[in-house]
Amino acid sequence: MSPLLRQWGRAAAPSPADWPGLIEAYRSWLPVSEATPVITLREGATPLIPAPAVAARIGRGVTVHLKYDGLNPTGSFKDRGMTMAISKAKEAGCEAVICASTGNTSAAAAAYARRGGLRAFVLIPDGYVAQGKLAQALVYGAEVLAIRGNFDRALSIVQEMAASYPVTLVNSVNPYRLQGQKTAAFEVVDALGRAPDWLCIPMGNAGNISAYWMGFQEYARAGRCSSLPRMMGFQASGSAPLVQGSTVEHPETIATAIRIGNPVNREKALAARAESGGAFLDVTDEEIIAAYKLLGGEEGVFCEPASAASVAGLLKRAEEVPSGATVVCVLTGNGLKDPDCAIANNDAAFHTDLEPTLPVVAGVMGF
Ligand SMILES: *Cc1c(COP(=O)(O)O)cnc(C)c1O
């Protein structure tokens, strides 16, 4: 029986409808008790999808898988952290949560907070949040405050707010966020039956790379895997404080989810790199978009630009991947989040304003 089936305690192939959400699935690995009210949208259990077109560009028997976390309930990995953060906030009796967000945190915070009956306040950089994410925060019933400033400014305001007022901060400085997010590493090992050799991941605030590293280490300590991956973290060139080693005052990139100049989890991410023998590298917006198109057009996997940074980074480092290695690239968010980017960046044959007749359609098709 696969580890995942054992986890679920069933002999038969589980149906997705049976998945209880990651807190119940990994309860013994998480800081929850019987007293914790579990606020869940059945997040987690996202697919690990083989990526033969990416692997073919590397060759030498390298296998590449995509951890497609864009299939979580609100379309990003942020749901993994938010089910924990909101459940614990509710357990503590809190009535409102607050976050700064480049978009996905606000969508997840809003969905889980409202489901738990809490108020959700979200601060976003005005004009720099992808349409789909803004739509979600509004529909999930958040109270949205768009500031004339970037993410880093928004984060420092919400940190002060949470210190002075009765609101709980649910950015990734909240330790429960990383606890929930580490379950993605568990799922990767459960699916592969081992840890990958390389784990490629985009970095913004660098919470997710820290959470994955925690998850892999905990699984290794418990004997669930006998090796650990090298943690390969990628940032956009215009927003690469962890690669440059210093804060970026005015981060710029098409990948708005990682448009962060002063990552709060810097120390944890640096430790993950050092302990795993990993590396950080930046990728240009052009390289991000090339990977984004490759994933959509050849793998059939639509992710958001920030997510494609993991594949862009892998391809940039292709000659360093050991022959025969198993690589996992984390696709953090769903492509539908950012339709403007998709429509502006594709090589599709899109014929418009056609006469509605058979000869015209057949003619365009080349018949
Ligand atoms: C939040 C986010 C990231 C960055 O994750 P960090 O934990 O901040 O490093 C990357 N991609 C997407 C789609 C995100 O929403």
Detail the poorly predicted runs. Answer: none
- Give the structural class: alpha/beta
From the spread of the alpha carbons, the general shape counts as globular
Element-by-element helix/strand order: HHEHEHEHEHEHEHHEHEHHEHHEHH
Trace the largest sheet across and list its strands: 1-2-10-7-8-9
Strand content: 5-15%
Sheet with the most strands, sense and barrel status: 6 strands, mixed
- Output the radius of gyration: 21 Å
Give the averaged pLDDT, no decimals.
95
DSSP strand count: 10
Structure, explained:
The chain has 16 helices and 10 strands. The model has no long low-confidence stretch (mean pLDDT 95). It has helices spanning 3-8, 22-25, 52-58, 78-91, 104-115, 131-139, 151-164, 175-181, 183-192, 207-221, 241-244, 266-276, 285-299, 305-316, 339-344, 358-364; strands at 48-50, 63-68, 96-100, 119-125, 143-147, 168-169, 198-202, 230-236, 279-283, 326-331. The chain has a 6-stranded mixed sheet with strand order 1-2-10-7-8-9, sandwiched between helices. The protein has a 4-stranded parallel sheet with strand order 5-4-3-6. It binds pyridoxal-5'-phosphate (PLP).
Strand and helix layout:
Elements: H1 3-8, H2 22-25, E1 48-50, H3 52-58, E2 63-68, H4 78-91, E3 96-100, H5 104-115, E4 119-125, H6 131-139, E5 143-147, H7 151-164, E6 168-169, H8 175-181, H9 183-192, E7 198-202, H10 207-221, E8 230-236, H11 241-244, H12 266-276, E9 279-283, H13 285-299, H14 305-316, E10 326-331, H15 339-344, H16 358-364
Helix pairs in contact: 4-5, 4-8, 5-6, 8-10, 9-10, 10-12, 13-14
This protein binds pyridoxal-5'-phosphate.
